[in-house]
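Quick one, tokens below. Sequence please?
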């Protein structure tokens, strides 16, 4: 044992990792700030692991330590330090998890748990790759770790990412967990600035389920309410989260909070805003639906999860089943995303149908803001009938230009021998009432829909028929 304690050894990276490091540092991640997210995710994994051991009654080193993540900055020396009180690593785990670039300690841990037929914590994988993203900003990294196992000692790992790393014993009084000191390159000194790190944490890691303390102050105070049971979330919580997420003082018109296990596991909290932000000059890409994996932001406004005709939706989709490429920045192209999209579309359309049936006033408010966007769904053939049932029009039977009817309302009032649904395009109700073609239909007691939006002609001709009734221009 004495010889092992004194051991200080330099290792060469396996499998030409020096070359891979260069690729990781310059090509794999879109933004250099991602390394902060990766280190926080790894710290959360380590905390999840030790919390799991605590729950199942395992005796381990320093059980009274708070489960937390600490970030300390030294602007003068250009050092970024992140420390967790998680499960830590032994010397062999250091070599296995850090010495091989694509190795995942988290995957090994889940495999071990499954072999014991017990439920382990949910972990964000690809530890090795995520850790090495630090060399996008670092000229040198020193990692000090102590395992949760009582008889294990602390170890220090260090490397400049240039082809080798060194492992040596660390101080005996090293606490449980892992500390990573990042000695920043001159062109990355921004990551020793408090405001910069605070911004990154709030962008990507605000909902990590452990306290993140920056220079002693906790900065992630918003809970991931989409992961909580609906029965435990109050209306005011939903409204406050919407204001935070969209950065607005408005309250949402409605929201949809659900969990699913099949065909894909996910948690979702989706909002229907009161205001069409496109009317205010915002890009359709702003404030969309964000994709999370286990509370960690992967992508804002993921365009693969929501069709264009539902781009007004805001909120969060969080899944544990979404496959990722090595980089969390690039999602694999496979059927998983399609399954998530199909589920979201079905739930949203069902929610709108329920709103239209049970709260006509609220639905009309929604339609007045987003009806024109929803009409773009006329090319979504698998969901066409459901979408068209949500369309609303003024009509020759309504009292004024503000009153709206659905196609189902129209069909319910059709004359016994009437086979078609008729509509007239006009710039206003007054213009429609003066249309000379209208008179013949009025004489026969046939209702005519009024379409005031230029897009309606394309939409209605594209739909062609609804519930076996042809849509014809009068």
């Amino acid at each position: 044992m004495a010889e092992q304690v004194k051991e200080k050894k330099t290792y060469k990276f396996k499998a030409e990792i020096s070359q891979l490091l260069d690729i990781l540092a310059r090509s794999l991640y879109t933004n250099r700030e991602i390394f902060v997210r990766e280190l926080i995710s790894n710290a959360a994994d380590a905390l999840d692991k030790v919390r799991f051991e605590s729950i199942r009654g395992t005796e381990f080193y320093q059980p009274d330590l708070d489960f937390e993540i600490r970030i300390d900055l030294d602007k003068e020396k250009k050092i970024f330090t992140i420390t967790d009180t998680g499960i830590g690593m032994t010397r062999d785990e250091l070599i296995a998890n850090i010495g091989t670039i694509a190795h995942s300690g988290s995957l090994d841990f889940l495999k071990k748990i499954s072999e014991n037929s017990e439920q382990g914590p949910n972990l964000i994988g690809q530890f090795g790759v995520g850790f090495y993203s630090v060399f996008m900003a670092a000229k040198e990294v020193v990692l000090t770790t102590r395992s949760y196992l009582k008889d294990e000692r602390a170890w220090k790992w260090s490397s400049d990412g240039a082809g080798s790393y060194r492992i040596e014993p660390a101080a005996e009084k090293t606490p449980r967990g892992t500390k990573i000191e990042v000695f920043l390159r001159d062109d990355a000194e921004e990551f020793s600035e408090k405001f910069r790190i605070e911004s990154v944490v709030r962008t990507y890691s605000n909902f990590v389920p452990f306290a993140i303390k920056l220079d002693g102050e906790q900065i992630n105070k918003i809970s991931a309410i989409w992961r909580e049971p609906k029965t435990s979330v109050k209306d005011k919580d939903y409204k406050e989260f919407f204001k935070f997420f969209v950065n607005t003082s408005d309250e949402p018109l409605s929201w949809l909070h659900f969990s699913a296990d099949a065909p894909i596991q996910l948690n979702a909290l989706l909002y229907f805003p009161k205001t069409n932000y496109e009317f205010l000059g915002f890009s359709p890409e702003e404030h969309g639906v964000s994709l999370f994996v286990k509370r960690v932001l992967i992508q804002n406004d993921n365009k693969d999860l929501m069709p264009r005709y539902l781009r007004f939706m805001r909120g969060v989709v969080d899944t544990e089943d979404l496959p990722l490429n090595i980089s969390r920045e690039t999602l694999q192209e496979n059927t998983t995303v399609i399954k998530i999209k199909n589920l979201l579309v079905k739930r949203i359309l069902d929610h709108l149908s329920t709103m239209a049936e049970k709260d006509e006033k609220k639905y009309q408010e929604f339609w007045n803001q987003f009806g024109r966007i929803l009409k773009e769904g006329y090319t979504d053939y698998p969901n066409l009938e459901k979408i068209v049932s949500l369309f609303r029009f003024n009509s020759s039977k309504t009292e004024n230009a503000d009153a709206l009817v659905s196609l189902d309302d129209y069909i319910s009032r059709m004359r016994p021998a009437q086979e078609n649904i008729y509509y007239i395009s006009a710039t206003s109700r007054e213009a429609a009432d003066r249309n000379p073609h209208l008179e013949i239909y009025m004489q026969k007691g046939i209702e005519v829909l009024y379409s005031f939006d230029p897009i309606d002609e394309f939409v209605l001709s594209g739909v062609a028929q609804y519930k076996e009734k042809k849509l014809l221009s009068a």
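The radius of gyration is 29 Å. The mean pLDDT is 86.
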